[in-house]
Amino acid sequence: MVDRGSLNQVLQQSAIVDLLDIIGGLPPEDRDRFLRLFQVEASLGHLVPPEHMNRWIDRYFGSLERVLTQKVVKVTNRETFEETLFNELRSRRPLEARIPAEFANEIAKTAPDPFCEPETNTPADTFGRIRGRHTITASNIAKYDGHHGVIIFDEHDPLAFSRELVVDAVRVAQEWYARSHAEDAAAIYPLFMWNCLWKSGASIPHGHAQVSLTRGHHYGKIELQRQAARRYQRTYGHPYFDDLFLAHQSLGLGRDLGGVRVMASLTPLKEKEIVLLTDRMSDDLAVAIFRVLQCMVESLNVVSFNLVIAQPPVVETEDDWSNIPVIVRIVDRGDPLNRTSDFGAMELYAASVVSSDPFRVAEVLWSNLFGR
Q1: pTM to 2 decimals?
Q2: Quick check: is 90 in a domain?
């Protein structure tokens, strides 16, 4: 394994379009691990624009040469089949369907909504409300599972979250799971969700998170990861999530932050996805979440995002959850002032298409978290 200084230098000189060359330069052990987990393919796209488009192409894409031949890199996780196609040029596409910034900012920061007076304007769960130092719970009025609650932040502005607020929200979520499980012993699989602003699917701008506790098995995509991890460990004799982190770390895309493993994902669902892994729920994880979110908002220009915390079941089960960590995934959902959706048919039914380079995401992230 190369030292941290060497990884920093490699990271600065790396780009996702050169991933095949980067893998080829890894030490044999790191390269073998990476190729157990990922398949990487590169292809070239060509086009012939009419001459009258040249000025428009220069304006939006920098030069005609940039669009004539385009390199696309496809990264596939061999175990989960999560797959992402990268083309940096797509970030330069013209997006003109915007709404006035003043309108959106005013609503997000100041407009009243039911969450401004939650004890008057939101229902409670049957076990009552949980009041933290900076948050309070409500029962979701239109549930997508039998146990589905809301953690409402005292702070209205959805981007004005503090370290204390994030820690409090995570603590309150654990208490909500415990009380829901006490009412329904079969409900054992917890999920924490934080949708920020409209692009993320949030219907109310006021800062809030959601919690659910499901029965039978964990939500499908989480169960898929568990089964993939079990299959990988049976085949190779290595814990899947340990190798996943080491594969990212070998490229400079993963680091340890006080016992929390942080990665700029090689197969992001959408832009700038960051994954955190840890053995158990703790305040340290909540602080790491806050620090990563702070970097995303302040340095990676993220305004709207989705965040999930997927935990193993709250009690022992017949299924094997050994070596399955707490998994946090955070993804940028784009400019909330842009009416164009970041999800299309490709993301829904085929593979993710992403313009942000994980190496640049990691470079900014490590600079913020570690000061270099």
Answers
A1: 0.92
A2: no
